[in-house]
Amino acid sequence: MNKKDYVDVEEKLPIGKTIPLSLQHLFAMVGATILVPQLTGLPPAMALFCSGIGTLLYIFATKGKIPSFIGSSFAFIGAIILVKDKYSTSVMLSGVIAAGLVYIIVAGIIKLVGVKWIDKALPPVVVGSVVALIGLSLAGTAVEMAGFSLASSVENRPLVILVAIVTLSIAIIGTTFFKGFLSVIPILIAMISGYVLSFIVGIVPEEAIHEIVSAPIFQIPQFTLPKFNRDSINAVVIMAPIAFVTLAEHIGHLYVVNSVVGRDFTKDPGLHRSILGDGLATTFAGLVGGPPNTTYGENIGVMAISKVYSVWVIAGAAILSIIMSFIGPVAALIKNIPSPVIGGVGILLFGIIASSGFRIFVDDKIDFSDKRNLIIVSVIMILGVGKTVLEFNIGAIPVTIDTIALATIVGIMLNLILPKKKKIDL
């Protein structure tokens, strides 16, 4: 570490420090990235491969100036299953490519018209709310994976909760008290400790252990080429519009990174480059057989805790992700990280993201005695925390606007519509 208490975006660290820091990012994102192909029937190893390549494409597109990790997008799960089951995986991939091209086209338009409109559409009161909401919207997932939710059916609940508590405790203790290099890898240490404890108490399923032990040393991810025919038109019509929804999520994530790192990446290297990187990553995934991609909040949480913002560390995680997609036992080990381990660190990581949103309120001195601010924040928060979903049809095409995107869109509309006036005493 440098004398200052953070590692900046452009800084390189020795390889001995970079590898564990990169592993920390890989472990933080892998649970969600692997879950998408598991839910949609796509090869998990391809998700790892596309995540790594997609992150490198993103870094290239953003001139190495934005430390963001690319992983599988949850927004497309329903569309992937619908198109894949009705037609084929190859046809579905044509829709993934179309979604990526939407991002690329939007990036081109933003390059031409500039980003001044962002300041008007997304002032701090909206950005802070959306950033906080990104963390809060993941709270239920973390709590459920940790075994705390009574609504979920969890076997060996006491042991699952024990692992989650130990994992979370180590992450908190490490973040607070570790010194030197250990202070920047508390999440990695916590997840490894939680994994080892999971083996000791016996909550790792036998089939998972068998998969890890019997996996071939070297494997080639299952590549699938896209197919373009008449059915592809339907795939494009169903999947391309979802990209407009996830654009709002992408911008929200970028503002979280802005808040954590202390830079305005919408200006340098520019929002258009960030969106372009996401579009290139998704287009590449569609060309080889992976799921659509997006920037990941889990990795933003890791940066907030470690204060290591180096894009070289992110690139290292991307390279490790690619390598591990070819190593059977390692890919299986990562794939089978126990849920309470992910849930335990998730409670801290997602909470840190939410706190970043509240920090924006403080830094920009948002006045909550202003009725306008109060309404905007209240509506965004409740729509998001309540996991509001808007479903409708455009002709015969089903369209779903999910939680974060819907809350962001409503927040932007309220900001543009509500007059700036009057204060109320609370």
Automatic annotation (TrEMBL):
TM segment ranges: 27-60, 66-83, 90-113, 125-147, 159-178, 184-204, 309-334, 340-362, 374-390, 396-418
Family the entry assigns: Belongs to the nucleobase:cation symporter-2 (NCS2) (TC 2.A.40) family.
InterPro entries referenced in this protein's UniProt entry, alphabetically: NCS2, Xan_ur_permease
Keywords noted in UniProt: Membrane, Transmembrane, Transmembrane helix, Transport
Gene encoding the protein: pyrP
NCBIfam families: ncs2, PRK10720.1
The protein's name in its UniProt record: Uracil permease
Cell location: Membrane
Membrane topology field: Multi-pass membrane protein
Pfam family, any one: Xan_ur_permease
GO cellular component, one term: plasma membrane
GO MF terms held by the record: xanthine transmembrane transporter activity
PANTHER family cross-referenced by the UniProt entry: PURINE PERMEASE C1399.01C-RELATED (PTHR42810)
